[in-house]
């Protein structure tokens, strides 16, 4: 039983930024004919087609110039910020959230770290998706919290393998992590599937950590449904931020929200511990928090539609270009978030041993940076971020095609 969930799991020493730094260092800077194109990290703001709106920026400027927000904020967050986020999230929920359910964090990463720190206890474990976001493993390792990786099913739109979840769980399982819309897979879970996840958590007497940092960044046929819709079945901790939807990742404004109509968190003394833990952490800048109510109230839906339409366009380009590369397949076309997982058939390539070797050679020879699948838990896969200028996506994938043709062991090439 000791080996459950161990196969292909992400080493706790791996970070996406760490691998990307090594890949960037491996690019051939002398080749000025090929500028470096990075499709490795989910920060679209490096491209001019992904810019936040003027009203978002002005809200921050106004808050700063008011001279009202130069001091410390309450450690749980400014009251008006908590209230604005409660109202924002309640739009999509059957029961209205209270501002007291909302805790402001320095980005979603701090919300993850806070949540896992509070849940950690001797012998406890959490279930996280494979592939998934490696920060969960890293945070858990610092808290001596065991991580068990359940499978996502590419042939079913990267749905949660609920059989895998039930096989991994035991009486020491404290939470099941769900990432929706999916990073790194671009999946968007249906309402029915999320309800099944909630029912599974209920049977396992566990809670659900819903990572919804890409919430509402959807452009396919499946609408975004918050996990907290099913909080009456199993309690939900929702993690999110302004970063992706509002295109301001560097502002580090995130949140941790409790949806618990049955009062289970109170019985666990979770809220009490959460408030004390917030006292240890510094949240985001006070003036950024103060701008949130105006940002939420005054950002037009047209801005969000523009972002989603651009992502739809670039994912179309990505999937079309991948079809031209025989050794790479895309088992699922993303309907949300900013990333896609691609499977590599290494039997069709020569002199490339695995996904890490593939990505390092690609960076050195083509000045294109993509992430090896092992960084997110799946060996011999690739993760591409398509939140880039269309011309950059086209150029990067043309270079990827040339690279694969050069290493092809198929007679007459690709």
From TrEMBL:
GO terms for molecular function: L-tyrosine-2-oxoglutarate transaminase activity; pyridoxal phosphate binding. Residues 34-397 form the Aminotransferase class I/classII large domain. Its cofactor is pyridoxal 5'-phosphate. The modification N6-(pyridoxal phosphate)lysine is found at residue 244. Keywords: Aminotransferase, Pyridoxal phosphate, Transferase. Belongs to the class-I pyridoxal-phosphate-dependent aminotransferase family. This is Transaminase.
């Amino acid at each position: 039983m000791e080996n459950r969930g161990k196969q292909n799991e992400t080493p706790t020493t791996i970070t996406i930024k760490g691998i990307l730094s090594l890949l960037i260092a491996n690019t051939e800077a002398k080749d000025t004919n090929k500028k470096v194109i990075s499709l490795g990290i989910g920060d679209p703001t490096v491209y001019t087609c992904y810019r936040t709106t003027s009203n978002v920026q002005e809200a921050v400027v106004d808050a700063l110039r008011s001279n009202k927000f130069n001091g410390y904020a309450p450690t749980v967050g400014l009251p008006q910020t908590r209230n604005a986020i409660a109202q924002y999230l309640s739009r999509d929920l059957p029961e209205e959230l209270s501002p007291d359910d909302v805790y402001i964090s320095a980005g979603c990463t701090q919300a993850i770290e806070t949540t896992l720190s509070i849940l950690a206890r001797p012998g406890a474990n959490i279930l996280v998706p494979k592939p998934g976001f490696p920060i969960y493993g890293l945070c858990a390792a610092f808290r001596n919290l065991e991580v068990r990786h359940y499978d996502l099913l590419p042939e079913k739109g990267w749905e949660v393998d609920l059989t895998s979840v039930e096989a991994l769980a035991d009486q020491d399982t404290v939470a099941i992590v769900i990432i929706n819309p999916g990073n790194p897979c671009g999946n968007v879970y249906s309402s029915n599937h999320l309800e099944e996840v909630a029912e599974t958590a209920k049977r396992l007497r566990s809670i659900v950590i819903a990572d919804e940092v890409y919430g509402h960044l959807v452009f396919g046929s499946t609408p975004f449904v918050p996990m907290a819709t099913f909080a009456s079945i199993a309690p939900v901790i929702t993690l999110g931020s302004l970063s992706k939807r509002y295109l301001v990742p560097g502002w580090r404004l995130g949140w941790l929200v409790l949806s618990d109509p049955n009062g289970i968190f109170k019985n666990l003394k979770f809220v009490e511990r959460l408030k004390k833990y917030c006292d240890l952490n510094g949240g985001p800048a006070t003036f950024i928090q103060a701008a949130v109510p105006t940002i939420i109230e005054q950002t037009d839906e047209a801005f969000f539609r523009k972002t989603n339409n651009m992502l739809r366009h670039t994912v179309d380009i990505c999937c079309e270009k991948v079809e031209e590369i025989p050794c790479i397949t895309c088992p699922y076309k993303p309907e949300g978030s900013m990333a896609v997982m691609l499977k590599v058939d290494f039997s069709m390539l020569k002199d490339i041993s695995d996904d890490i070797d593939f990505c390092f050679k690609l960076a050195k020879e083509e000045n294109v940076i993509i992430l090896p699948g092992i960084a997110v838990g799946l060996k011999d896969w690739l993760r591409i971020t398509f939140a880039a200028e269309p011309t950059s996506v086209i150029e990067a994938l043309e270079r990827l095609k040339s690279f694969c043709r050069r290493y092809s062991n198929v007679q007459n090439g690709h």
